[in-house]
Amino acid sequence: MAKRCFDVLLAGLGLLVLSPLLLALAAWIKFDSPGPVFYRQVRVGRGGRPFRIHKLRTMADAPAGAGPEITVGADRRITRAGRVLRHYKLDELVQLIDVLKGDMSLVGPRPEVPRYVALYPADVRDRVLSVRPGITDPASLEYRDEAAVLAAAADPEAEYVNVVMPAKLALAVRYVEQASLATDLRLIGRTLRLVFLP
C-alpha cells in the first residue's frame, strides 16, 4: 500500500512538472514525422495481465506488428526526434500515465511483450510477474545500451533470448526478492543520474 501511494504521488507530481516538456516533445514528434504522438504496445503486467504501455513514438509510423520487437543498433525505423528521445529515455516519461492507471510502478521489472514472456521459466515468470512492472529497474540500468549490444551479435534475436533476457530476468528476480522503499529510491536516483549525467 505504501509503495502504491508513493507511486501515485510521484507520478502525479512528475506529470504536472513535466507537462511543458511533454507538450514540446509531442509537437516535435508531430513536426518531425507523420503519425501519432503516442506508441502503444501490449505488454504483460502483474499476474500475467496484458496492458497497453504508453511511449512517445520514436519510429516511423507502421502497422502494429510490423518489424522486429527488439531494436538493434541504428534501426532505420527510428526518426530524427526518436534518436534523441531514446538516447535520453524521454520516450518513457509518459509511462507515468501507466503508473497512475495502476498498470505500472515507478520501479519494478520492465514489462515484456507476450512473445518473450512465454519463454520465461515457470518459476521465474511467477516471481517476476508477482509485482507491478516498472519504468526503471536494475536490468534497464545495466542494459541501457541494449540496442548496441544486440547490434554487435551475429544473430540479435538469439542473443536477446539466450543471453540478454536470462541476465535481465536474474536481476528482476533479485529485485523482487529484495525490494523496499529505500531500494526504489536508490534506483530512481541512479536512473535520474544516468539520464541527466550519462
TrEMBL record:
The keyword Transferase applies. The keyword Transport does not apply. GO terms for molecular function: phosphotransferase activity, for other substituted phosphate groups. Keywords: Transferase. It holds the Pfam family Bac_transf. Belongs to the bacterial sugar transferase family. This is Sugar transferase.
